[in-house]
Structures are given as structure tokens and as C-alpha cells.
Amino acid sequence: MKRANTISRSVEIGLRFIGLWPDSTYATFYWFSYMTSIVIVQYYQYAYVLGHLEINDVWLLMDCLSLTLAYTLAFFKLLVLWWNRRIFYRIVKDMDEDWKNCIVNSSYMSTMMTMADLSRRFSNIVFTVNGIGAFFLSIGEHLLQSMDDANRINNSSRELPLKMEFPFDVSESPIFECFLIGQFIYDLVIAFVVGLMNALLVTLILHVSGQIDIMRQDLAEISKHNYDHNTFVIIIKDLICKHQRIIALSENIENLYTEIALMQILWNTLVICCTGFFIIITINTTKDISTLIKSVNYYIAITLEAFIFCYAGEFLSAKSMSISDAIYESLWYNVSPNDSRILLFMMLRCQKRLTITAGKIIDLTLNGFASIMKASASYISVLNAMY
Fold first, then answer.
1. Rounded CA gap, 309 and 261, in Å?
2. What are phi and psi of 362, to 5 degrees?
3. Among 77, 155, 217, 242, which residue's CB has the most CB atoms within a 10 Å radius?
4. How far apart are CA 245 and CA 99, in angstroms?
5. What local confidence, expressed as pLDDT, does residue 377 receive?
6. Phi, psi of 357 (to 5 degrees)
7. Using CB atoms within 10 A of its CB, is residue 102 exposed (0-12), middle (13-18) or buried (19+)?
8. Nearest Cα to 191, choosing from 123, 132, 279?
9. Is there a contact between 20 and 7 (Cβ–Cβ < 8 Å)?
10. How far apart, in Å, are the Cα atoms of 151 and each of 142, 144, 145, 148, 313?
């Protein structure tokens, strides 16, 4: 039997790993340990950035700065998610209640199972893409560089893929290999945690979408039976309660992710700009192919992350507006005029679409994603002209 939950098993395991799953054991210890490890790595990353903060070496600065900023973003996103963990607990509780109602009413189960399957597939795709990106950022880049004869002859020039400033030399074996494996594990865990937050947002949106589809299904059946005022009032009360639950769940998701979305838009614009400029420098200066592959792969991953947030907001808005369409397409003309006015009020309420905002300022839409890409391209052209 399939698991009756929109949140996939992989996402649940990830949330337990960072101490954010409700009622998980040693949650605070897991979260504090993981955040401490990020702070330690970030210290050595920023030490390297400050130690190589030279305008004459823009190529090296952009290389280390883009990754450092991305990992800083992951740190702040985890911090915000932990701060709003009580909101997340309420969301999980509401989702469990929705699944209990689906078990009682088997006609809803197929709709929610479809959303659960989509959630699992998307989570697996995100984790796979992020895992591949982490491989090329660490072990993959080193393997490509090791194919160069110069690197094999001169081992003293070896550098770690993730630029850090240590108080001792790490280019000698076996210290270099140990740090290389450690960076790969660190990159892999960060990639999975970033993918986890993206997958969680899409999972929550898919759950709301499933509830909206169930409500549309009930609206389609509302006037197919013989009209009776008392029966109609009972059904319409149930639909209004469902709509209020959908609105409340959407608002909780909005409160959970609004600060994260704001950081995502602002930070991703900067990171995409740095990474894109680094790719241009790499192509113009004919650097090694391993660096170019790493940069392009990382650029795609960062762009995809911004796209996921914007598409999730667009999808939720479109789904919420579909409720009014379902009301209009129902056989509302078969009911009495007084009862049909109730449906009219529901349509008016649906005109205020559900959405995810960035800091309560702007809505996450595909137009917003296009604005991010345009702004990043503008900054890249300015930097390229100044370089």
C-alpha cells in the first residue's frame, strides 16, 4: 500500500536530519550541530575571500564569492525555517487532518494520491540534480583537473574545489585527499538540504492543489442531484469550510516561506550575476574545461532554484482562481436565486487569489523570474564592460 502522505519519505528523513520534523528526537541537537558545521566552514570561506579581495584577480574572486554567498543563503534559509518551525508544525497537522478526511471519503483518495506521487517524483528529481551539482563542484572538478598533465606533475599547486583559507598547508597528501572527501560530503549535504527546502515548498503547494481539486470536484457534483434547499445548505456549508481551510493553509505556507523567498530573490540575483560573469571570464581567458563545466552546472542549479520558487507561486495563484471557474461551470441556474447568491459570494472571495510573496512585497510569479534573469543579465553586462 502506498504511503498516505503528501510529504515524501525522503523529505521527511531530511527534515528529521536537520531537526525540523515535529516530535523528532534530539531535534535541537541535530539542528545546532548542523548549523555549527556550516558556521565553521563559512568562517574559512570568508577568510579566503577577504584574503584574496583584489580587483586585479576578479576571476578568482568571482569563483569563490559565488559559492560562498550561496552557502550563506542556505544558512539563513535554515535559520528562518527553524524560527518559523511552529508554523510548519501547524501545516503538518492540517495536512494530516486532510488525509484523515480522504481516508473517510474514498472518492478523494485518488486525487490526493496523484499529488503525493507528483511530490515524490519531484523530490527525487531535485535531490538527483542537486547531487550531480555537488559532485561537479567537488570530486568531479578534481577528477577533471587530474587529467591535466601539469596537475599530475606539480602536486604542490593543487587547490581544493571549495576555496578556504587554512592556517596550514593542505596541498600535501594525504591531508589534501582527506579535505577533498570532506568537502565533497559537505557539498553533498548542503545540496540535499537546499533541495529539501525547494521540495518541501512544492510539496506543500501540491497538497493545497489537491484540496482545491477536491473542492472543484464537489462543486461539479453540487447541482447534479435533485435540488433540495436543506441539502444544498448543508453541502454549501461544507464547501465554505473547505475553502476556509485551504485559505488558512495557504496563508501558513506564505508565512513560512515569505522571508525565505525574499532572500532567494535578492541573493539569487547576486549569485547568478557573479556566476554568469565568472563563466564569461572563463570563456574569454580560455581557462581549463573543468572550471567551465563546474560553473555552467552551478549556474543551471542556481537558476533552477529561483525558477522553482517563482513557478510554485504562479501555480498556486492559477489553482486558486480555478475555484471561481468551477463555480461558474456548475449548474448554478438549477438552484433558487437566493441560494445561487451564496455561490456568487464564493466567486467574489476567489477573486482574491492565493499566492506566495517575497517578504510580503512582491508575488512570486513567472514574470518575477523573468525580472530576476533580466536584472542579473544587466549586472553581468556592466561588470563585463568594467572588466
1. 7
2. -125, 150
3. 77
4. 13
5. 83
6. -110, 160
7. buried
8. 132
9. no
10. 10, 10, 7, 6, 47
Q: Which three three-digit cell numbers place residue 310? A: 517563482
- Which cell numbers hold the place of 81? 525555517
C-alpha span between 355 and 353 (Å, rounded)? 6
Write the Ramachandran bin of 289: left for phi over 0, alpha for psi from -120 to 50, otherwise beta: alpha
pTM attached to this predicted model = 0.87
Distance (Å, whole) CA 376 – CA 286: 23
Take residue 327 and report the three cell numbers written for it: 463555480
Q: How far apart are CA 108 and CA 310, in angstroms?
A: 28
Tens of pLDDT along 149-165?
444 444 445 677 778 88
Q: Cell digits for 316?
A: 498556486
First CA to last CA across the chain, in angstroms?
60
- For all residues of the chain together, what is the average pLDDT? 82
Kindly report, residue by residue over 178-208, the tens digit of the pLDDT.
Answer: 888 888 888 888 889 989 999 999 999 999 9
C-alpha cell at 385: 564592460
* C-alpha separations of 299 from 118, 269, 291, 306 in Å: 26, 11, 12, 11
SS3 content of the chain, % helix, strand, coil (to 5): 80, 0, 20
Distinct helix (H) and strand (E) counts, the chain: 12, 2
